[in-house]
Design goal:
InterPro entries: SirB1_N
Radius of gyration: 20 Å
Strand order of the largest sheet: 1-2-3-4
Order of helices and strands: HHHHHHEEEEHHHHHH
Helix content: 55-70%
Structural class: alpha+beta
Protein name: Transglutaminase-like domain-containing protein
Family: Belongs to the UPF0162 family.
Strand content: 5-15%
Oligomer: single chain
Organism: Streptomyces roseoverticillatus
Shape: globular
Length: about 280
């Protein structure tokens, strides 16, 4: 899968009325290994289908706790999907193909596995983007539901325990709005944010940070400042003209609201162009 084909598919999939979360995460993984072609995507989809086929036929009317227990028994206990602190140091922990292969990953990628397997089996499932720790909900988000933590093998959480996770990660108290279902585009942006953060801590992997930024910019909604981050990366990687052009366009976007910042960015663009002389 070349960059153009993969990114075109990603942009199109992100703009679907009901985006395919698994496909978007697999296309992200394709950026990390562009020479692998379509086979890893197909293999991963087959594996998700296979895992879903191993779940008992509970039906959507089954109690949310029963669904959560069934997923924990299959994925957490029988298949060994879970996470550990060491997984935060690995790029593979943010790539769905690798998470399915290694059965290790970050909370959000393990939650994607839980959601995609459960969805295929007909479970009422959704993602919950708690600050600092993504989990999964079963049932009705604003009615009867349970929360499960795939990072901990699918352990069922009380709201008090969820609050402790949030407090431990951010120091902030739990708010009811935090339990709202996460939309696919929101989940994908958070996955890409994790990849950007991993790469930003490793200056030698600016290539990874750049493609993560560029995929983020293909999402229907994204922070405008990502354009500035892309511009800085282009300059850092020696594309002075491309980086300067991106800085100038970003300055135009923010000029009305932040004229001082816009002028600073324009000066940076001129400095980047001067590096060609």
């Amino acid at each position: 899968m070349n960059d153009t084909t993969g990114r075109q598919r990603f942009a199109e999939a992100a703009r679907e009325t009901r985006p395919d979360l698994a496909l978007l995460c697999l296309l992200i993984a394709g950026e990390a290994d562009p020479d692998a072609g379509e086979e890893p995507v197909d293999t991963a989809q087959i594996e998700l289908d296979r895992l879903a086929g191993l779940l008992p036929a509970l039906g959507r009317q089954a109690a949310p706790r029963r669904w959560a227990e069934a997923l924990a028994e299959l994925l957490g206990e029988r298949c060994g999907f879970h996470g550990s602190p060491a997984d935060y140091r690995r790029l593979e922990s943010s790539l769905l193909t690798e998470v399915l292969r290694r059965r290790r990953g970050l909370p959000i990628l393990l939650s994607v596995v839980w959601m995609e397997v459960a969805r295929r089996a007909g479970a009422p499932v959704y993602g919950v983007a708690l600050p600092g720790h993504f989990v999964v909900g079963f049932g009705e988000p604003y009615g009867q539901h349970v929360l499960a933590d795939p990072f901990d093998g699918g352990r069922i959480l009380s709201e008090e325990e969820a609050g402790l996770l949030v407090a431990g990660a951010t120091g902030a108290p739990l708010a009811p709005a935090m339990f709202s279902p996460a939309e696919p585009a929101e989940i994908v942006l958070r996955v890409l944010n994790n990849i950007r953060a991993w790469a930003a801590a490793r200056p030698e992997r600016s290539d990874v940070q750049l493609w993560a930024v560029e995929l983020s910019l293909l999402l229907p909604s994204h922070p405008a400042r990502l354009r500035y981050e892309r511009a800085e990366l282009l300059v850092e990687r020696g594309d002075f003209v491309g980086g300067a052009h991106e800085m100038e366009e970003y300055a135009e976007v923010i000029d009305a609201l932040e004229p001082t910042v816009a002028e600073t960015v324009r000066r940076q663009a001129r400095a980047a162009r001067a590096m060609l002389n």
